[in-house]
Amino acid sequence: MRPAVRYVIPLLAVVVAVALWAALVRTFAIPDYLLPAPQVVAARIAKDWLVLWKNGVYTLLSVLTGFAASIAIGVPIAFAIVLSRGMERITMPFLVMSQTIPKVAIAPILVVWLGFGILPKIAIVFLISFFPIVVSTVVGLKSVETDMIDLVRAMGGSTAKIMLRVRAPSALPQMFAGLKIAVCLAVVGAIVGEFVGSDRGLGYLLLTSTGTLDGPLIWAALIVLIAMGMTLFAIVSFIERLAIPWHVSVRLDDAAAYQS
Amino acid sequence: MITLSRRALLASAAGLGAGLGTLAARPARAADAVSFRLDWTLSGYHLPYYWAKQKGYYAAENLDVQIKEGAGSGKTVALLAGNQEDIGLADFMFMAQGVAKGMKLKAIMGEVQNGAWAIISHADAAIKKPEDLIGKSVATTADHKAMLDLFLAINKIPADKVTAQVTSPATRNTVFVNGKVDSFISVVIGSPLDLVVRARQGKDKPVYFMQFADFGITPMGQGVFVNSQTLAEKPDMLRRFVRASAHAVNDVARPAAVDEAVDIAMKLSGARDERRDSVKLQWEETIPRLRTANTQGHPYGWMSDKDWAIADDILVKTGQVDKPIPVENLYTNEFVPTS
Asked: In this complex, do B98 and A33 lie within 8 Å of one another by their Cβ atoms?
């Protein structure tokens, strides 16, 4: 019964939403270029699946590379910030600055600098997704109970050991919150990058199909994009469950008793 | 038997007088507000509309025309399809594409009748014939990609031998100047002429234009179009708008008027001063394109079945439409003044 509730209800919600979409298009006779009916979009996905797949894989590549880079660079920066107040004072203004620059504005400059390859897309994915990772990791690392740190230190634990054994594990829940935000932003970043200059990818497909008012293809690409974002989010959530099964947010999800 | 009292008689006489008074005062009635959406920020081919506004041609037709800049033909076409503006100016190829997708639009005055597309390259590495494109990269905005595909197809250049880089309009010319691409595709009378002006001023390297017209592609260019609802509901307003605009085209096409027309448009549109030379050059390049071989001898704005059939054929060949759209669904000459 429980799995049924868990999966059937969201599925039902999606079915109802799609039915509403179809009814809306039919009732108001909305033309294809504004909003194609779901069956038209589905037919287009079936027909052009290879094109969508190839372009999707390219976009996914820049999403994953950029996301991996933002973890690889963002997490060590967060550790450095927590370890040293000087480091925090130096890096924080730059971090905040990098976030306040609109990515849409900087994307054309990156294309001019880095050319048309995958590099500018990865750079934008990185720029857009590393900030939430850094910020949430810093918050996580800092929000350890000081009693705990004092205890370990009193028992002779070094700063490195405190970092690894105490701070890092307790920072994981916050970190995963950041990762979940970052992975969704990463998809946005890849599309922004492709919008400015590209010869393939889902963003490219969106641009060219908008250029020819090809409504069904626009929506087909959008749906693939949504599916990609949701899958990536689900994967990060799955890893989260494996990594921190002890945390209250995960336990609550599993315990139906708390949900009513 | 109806008996009229003296008072009633006087009142009706007064009423009649008031009525006559209103009739006589008719020109003083508030002018019809018209929103007119252009395709881009100031370009040479916008000059006649600013001229018509400044010289009072619209006012004389009792129109209060608000000229608004655009962000690409595709957007202007979409705005008109959604009835968000009264009148639009866009590349007719985009309008026709919209019509093919079910938008209710119609061209009512052709301004640039020869679309004049080109592939622009650096003069020292000039792309002079279609074969030169093999192994080269071409920057294109998303809107223009279909035109590039067509040019390649008609000239039998395999599409996979040419790298098409889709860029945002703001990035296209920069990546070209910067050397990230070998060339770009554009309408000649737009921003490519900025590059010509810059080259003349010694700021950039000279450029070379490979004109599509030299290789058999002559699509329709920019012109005035409306939603079919406006066409049905306000034919009189459209007639007056086209009459005033065509009058202005006649004026501004005279070489003696060009400088004044540029000044007017620069002032009314608020364009940056450094664009002046480029806007002027754009209009000078537009003048010979106001008519095609098929519209010679006709008044400005008048369009020909033959030119529209060519445009139609291009849409079929680029796969935008399955079969040609009947040209009477695309345009009408009924508003263009006959003399």
From this structure: yes
List, as one string, the DSSP characters of B263-299: HHHHHHHT--GGGHHHHHHHHHHHGGGSS-TTTTTSP
* Rounded distance between C-alpha atoms, residue B98 and residue A214, angstroms: 10
Query: A108 contacts in B (CB within 8 Å)?
Result: 168, 170-171, 174
The rounded distance, in Å, linking the Cα atoms of B66 and B48 is 14
Exposure string (b/e) for B172-200, b if CB count within 10 Å is 16 or more?
Answer: bbebbbeebbbbbbbbbbbbbbbbbbbee
Instruction: Verify whether the Cβ–Cβ distance B171 to A112 is below 8 Å.
Output: yes
- The Cα B86–Cα B73 span in angstroms is 15
Burial of B129 (0-12, 13-18, 19+ CB in 10 A): exposed
| Residue A31 at interface with chain B, using a CB cutoff of 8 Å | yes
On whether the pTM is more than 0.80, the answer is no
Task: Note whether B149 contacts A: Cβ–Cβ < 8 A.
Answer: no
SS3 (DSSP) at A258 = helix
Contacts of B164 in chain A (CB under 8 A): 199
pLDDT tens per residue across all 260 residues of chain A: 566 777 888 899 999 999 999 999 999 988 888 899 999 999 999 999 999 999 999 999 999 999 999 999 999 999 999 988 898 999 889 888 888 888 888 888 888 888 888 999 999 999 999 999 999 999 999 888 888 888 888 888 888 888 888 888 889 999 999 999 999 999 999 999 999 888 899 999 998 888 777 889 999 999 999 999 999 999 999 999 998 887 777 666 655 544 44
Three-class secondary structure of residue A118 per DSSP: coil
| Interatomic CA distance for residues B187 and B212, integer angstroms | 10
* A chain contacts of residue B98, beta-carbon cutoff 8 Å: 33, 213
**ipTM of model over 0.90:** no
